[in-house]
Write a structure and sequence with these properties.
Elements (H helix, E strand, L loop, with lengths): L8 E4 L5 H12 L3 E5 L4 H15 L6 E2 L6 H15 L4 E4 L14 H29 L2 E6 L12 H20 L5 E8 L5 H4 L2 H8 L3 H9 L11 H12 L10 E4 L7
Helix pairs in contact: 1-2, 1-9, 3-4, 4-5, 7-8
Protein name: 3-hydroxybutyrate dehydrogenase
Pfam family, one: adh_short
InterPro entries: 3-OHbutyrate_DH (IPR011294), NAD(P)-bd_dom_sf (IPR036291), Sc_DH/Rdtase_CS (IPR020904), SDR (IPR050259), SDR_fam (IPR002347)
């Protein structure tokens, strides 16, 4: 693979599985030194570190177990990345959680956790990473928002609010750094094929008494006109473009990759 990120360093949050791992792996294959972050079973984290490490030519990628619901932990994670990698050129805010319920039945602790991890962690990470990017006169910030950062769905008040806030944060940061060689953009995926997303298909099939194929197309992907999953690699390649050569003019964008969902 072309080494478009040779000499660059990156921190990808929520990167022990799913979209984050896909982005981290592609960055490493493109020549970047990458630090991972996220929760999971020890063996899964070890496997992710080994896979990304192999792409970097080392035994394992550096890793932070920071709890992104805590501001101090986010700040420490950014410092840890700078120490481990020597600098921090690229920040990808990907970590996120979900909970679904009507707003009048939504548990307060779930709301607070979603806002902390899905939104506030982005704010604290950007605040901590920007001084180093400014000092080195180069940087790329990519926030993984969602189609729900642009539109809404019922029973997802916390998630939709957090992802809308991420898009707003992206635009604000982009304006503040517009006259520097630093950019800040958001990616807004629809339903992406990950183990967590695929696990929703079976229960929907049972709930509606239909096949899993019908449950996927008519229920889970009801708002996604393509009626197919967005693949992790598709999101990762968009994230690679935003941090690679020729991307400097893209700033403050909320880029949809949702099979036509937000075109409706």
């Amino acid at each position: 693979m072309e080494q478009t990120l040779a000499g660059r360093t990156a921190l990808v949050t929520g990167s022990t599985s799913g979209i984050g791992l896909g982005i981290a792996l592609l960055y490493a294959q493109a020549g970047a030194k990458v630090m991972l972050n996220g929760f999971g079973k020890p063996e899964e984290i070890a496997r992710a570190r080994a896979e990304v490490g192999a792409a970097m030519g080392v035994a394992e990628a550096p890793y932070s177990a920071a709890d992104l619901s805590k501001a101090a932990a986010v700040k420490d994670m950014v410092q840890q990345a700078q120490d481990a990698l020597g600098s921090l050129d690229i920040l990808v805010n990907n970590a996120g959680i979900q909970f679904v319920a009507p707003i009048d039945e939504f548990p307060d602790d779930k709301f607070e956790a979603i806002m902390a991890i899905n939104f506030a962690s982005n704010w604290y990470a950007i605040k901590a990473a920007l001084p180093g990017m400014k000092a080195r006169n180069w940087g790329r910030i990519v926030n993984i928002a969602s189609a729900h950062g642009l539109i809404a769905s019922a029973e997802k008040s916390a998630y939709v609010s957090a992802k809308h806030a991420v898009v707003g944060l992206t635009k604000t940061v982009a304006i503040e750094i517009a006259q520097t060689p630093i950019t800040c953009n958001a990616i807004c995926p629809g339903f992406v094929r990950t183990p967590l997303a695929e696990a929703q298909v079976g229960p929907l099939a049972k709930q509606f008494g239909v096949s899993e194929e019908v449950a996927l197309k008519d229920h889970l992907l009801a708002h996604q006109p393509s009626k197919r999953w967005i693949e992790v690699e598709e999101v990762a390649r968009m994230a690679l473009y935003l941090v690679g050569p020729g991307s400097g003019g893209v700033n403050g964008a909320a880029l949809s990759i949702d099979g036509g969902w937000t075109a409706n």
